[in-house]
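step: validate -> pass
step: tokenize input -> pass
step: predict -> running
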Amino acid sequence: MSAIRRRIGERLVEAQQNAALLTTFNEIEMSAVAELRERHQDAFQKKYSVKLGLMSFFVRASVEALKKIPEINAEIRGDSIVYRDYYDIGIAIGGGKALVVPVIRNTERQSFAEIEKQIADFAERAHDNHIKVEELQGGTFTISNGGIYGSLLSTPIVNPPQSGVLGLHAIQDRPVVRAGQIVARPMMYVALTYDHRIVDGREAVTFLKHIKELIEDPARILLEV
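step: predict -> pass
step: emit ->
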């Protein structure tokens, strides 16, 4: 077992043993984001030299949802709850030897392009095992996209001492009811695993519902409503 795999194993066992983990689920229609990406992809890529991906939408939506439910951006230290007023989001990336979670700092101040550039840089360097140790430390919340590997549903594990992790999954056309009619829409299941010691079920459901509302109406992300 490599040193990095051994350390990952220790952290995962720590999370399972020391936190009261619970997972809640929802599903999101991805039509609006898909349309927006298709409409602006060429101009975005020409201007910023990076593709407009899905992850930047979920990073920005997560920031707004974390502002609404600050417990998920907090951590337990001893007998205290420490609330943070900044949002350092870890992005789970398949590296050359193992899954790594580099952190995008102060995402609340960053544009879609800045977020996409950092994710692209992390992905390239993770493939070559060039992620620095300090880039893996200090995150306040994590997003993991198992959908790129085809995962339809999963229960992600919290990265301690964080209190929450958002799991994204594969987008599939599924039948849904809209205006009384059964139609096919691109749908994604999302999962939020959270530490029940600090986050109640009501807050977790509210958080995930707000993510859903923002992704289904992405103009709200820019308006921060």
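step: describe -> The chain has six helices and ten strands.
step: cleanup -> pass
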